[in-house]
Amino acid sequence: MRDPKIITGFSRLTKDQKVDLVAGQVEYPENFAEVLRSSWHSDPQIQKLYDEFSENTLSNYYFPYGVAPNFKINGKLYMVPMVIEESSVVAAASGAAKFWSERGGFHSEVISAHKIGQVHFLWKDDVSLLREVFPQIRQQMIERTSPITSNMISRGGGIVSLELVEMTDLIPNYYQVKGTFDTKDSMGANFINSCLEEFADTLKDFINEDERFNASSLEVIMSILSNYTPECRVKTWVECDLSQHQGFDDSYSDEEFVRRFATGVKIAQVDVHRATTHNKGIFNGIDAVALATGNDFRAIEACGHTWASRNGHYQSLSEVSLENGKFRFSLDVAFALGTVGGLTNLHPLAKSSLDLLGNPGAEELMMIASAAGLANNYSAVKSLVTKGIQKGHMKMHLLNILNVFQATEAEKKEAIEYFKHEKVAYNSVSKFLESIR
Length: 437
Ligand code: MEV
Fold this sequence. Notes:
By secondary structure, the chain is of the alpha+beta class. It has four domains: about 1-60, no CATH class; about 65-110 and about 240-385, 3-hydroxy-3-methylglutaryl-coenzyme A Reductase, Chain A, domain 2, CATH 3.90.770; about 110-225, 2-Layer Sandwich (Alpha-Beta Plaits), CATH 3.30.70; about 395-435, no CATH class. The chain contains 15 helices and ten strands. The protein has helices spanning about 15-25, 30-40, 45-50, 90-100, 125-145, 145-155, 190-210, 255-270, 270-290, 295-305, 350-355, 360-385, 390-405, 410-420, 425-435; strands at about 65-75, 75-85, 105-110, 115-125, 160-165, 175-180, 220-225, 235-240, 320-325, 325-335. Helix 4 (about 90-100) crosses helix 12 and helix 9 (about 270-290) packs across helix 12 (about 360-385). The radius of gyration is 26 Å and the shape is globular. The chain binds (R)-mevalonate.
């Protein structure tokens, strides 16, 4: 590894120059450059599209694109596209989807899809006059953003409300203009941020132009949407008679299984360490659908984890109820998704994913993603409280280990057969390969 140096003008280099410069940082530059170039798309036009998603692009980073079939959600069948690098997640989602498709499928409802954005500002004066004139300022904000909002309004969305919020008990002189937005099927980040910046300018102009105010009373700190969207909330559940788990796991009776499962979920409601892992399993499914459809999985996770802390401590996003002889497993989660704008229609595979799902609107996609989350959660907890996670996971991971040892196709075939009845571990695979090589 060479010593990295401060580089000026990197972004202005051609792509080939960037590749050569970066590859020159490692011991075998030709290999690195070759790996980067060999991952380019064969069609230069498509490659250009990928390059322009981001900056300083050198190559593409491949992730597996798979599907989990048999997702029945509100009576409709879906093949759910999932992009994820972790082995066993797609298999787990598929297994649960099939199991629940025979028990009524997933039920899901979106409570609302409103989003929040804020202009954060300091007001170093008496607030009563500002309060008095705020309805006028609000009206001007709505009028001045009409070039931005007109399209959204014609699609049935737009600005839902604007309020002045006082937060001086937390930071001296701190206030917000809090906007609520309906962005219909788009994620709406650019829409909301553009509106907010216009709100901030409107506020400044109003204060500057009205002589009753001293212009220096106002200091706008920042204008930005919030990724915490508690109103973008989706509830998804599966339910069946307790006896419908029958024959599901040989080691436990159905009653015992259901009791262990419910206890496993309860633990994630009270213990923060377990809750984090439990919810990670839920996001295995949600993020994989978000990625496959060109959505921002960081925003989704940020919101979901904040939502998981809404009661004052971080807890499980899912819960179990066992009443009247019924097992009901439900997920209540907040996150925002889009099916128009952003990468959703630009990335060729994201566009195809949406096609595969029948071109859903944002609310339908929220239901699909949350069903994938609940499916993964169901499979994970089911394995954890029965045979343990490693057996299934390592079976799925076997191919990765074999690839680390550069096993041939014939060796892989033999190994898969052998490890049907043996515990998969890095060492045991290594030993097995030595024995047949
Ligand atoms: C692994 O990606 C996810 C799990 O750890 C989730 C869980 O423990 O519930 C299996």
